[in-house]
Amino acid sequence: MILQTIAKFILKTSGWTYTGEIPDLEKVVFIAAPHTSNWDGFWLLVYKVALDVELRFLAKSTLFWWPLGSLLRWFGAMPIDRSQATSTVQQLIDIFEQEEHLFLALAPEGTRKLRPYWKTGFYQIALAANIPIILAHIDYPRKEIGIGPELRPSGDIDEDLAFIRDYYKPFEGRHPELQSPIEFPPIKNNENAD
């Protein structure tokens, strides 16, 4: 495939390496961190094409107008309608139940700005849909993009977050000062943030 060759060439000539292997699973929530720059999305798309992996990601439904919508779908974007009564988390749980094969990539920091917490959606989706979380990273000092270990959410949030924290400890974003701490917000009235 020509695009795959081009993507590998871009990574190689830019000094980026990639590690890890695509999991032999049908359904997975990938989390990608740290997320501190617009460049993260570019490098992760190049990585996706280089490995020829069918990886999906979220985009606002309002972006899916012609011809941009076709291009976004080709790259793996999934439209999410935030105006629906059901939450984004529930929409994704429903999609996982309907699909036979789905690799979904989420950035739990949710923004490139420093925040006090990660969003909990990735964890809620994996727990409710009974699917694994795969930890993926981008590390700018080493110019490395990689796929790491699998985490089957146990429901013990403290234990699972400790595992995630340990994995991401050595990795630095393009702007390390903007990396959000790997914590979930306190639960209020049995509600979690998307």
Task: Give a structural overview.
With 194 residues, the chain is an alpha/beta fold. It has one domain. 34% of the residues lie in helices and 21% in strands. A 7-stranded mixed sheet has the order 1-7-6-2-5-3-4, sandwiched between helices. Helix 1 packs across helix 2 and helix 4 packs parallel to helix 5.
Order of helices and strands: HEEHEHEHEHEEH
Counting helices, strands and paired strands, the structural category is alpha/beta
Q: Regions with pLDDT < 50 over 5+ consecutive residues?
A: none
Report the strand count: 7
Radius of gyration: 16 Å
- The backbone outline, from C-alpha atoms, is globular
Question: What is the makeup of the main sheet?
Answer: 7 strands, mixed
Task: Summarize the helices and strands and which ones pair or pack.
Blueprint lengths: L1 H13 L2 E3 L7 E7 L5 H13 L3 E6 L7 H8 L1 E4 L7 H11 L3 E5 L14 H9 L3 E7 L4 E8 L5 H12 L26
Parallel strand pairs: 1-7, 2-5, 2-6, 3-4, 3-5
Antiparallel strand pairs: 6-7
Helix pairs in contact: 1-2, 4-5
Summary keywords:
6 helices; alpha/beta
Give a quick summary of the entry.
The protein is α/β, with parallel strands linked by helices and 194 residues long.
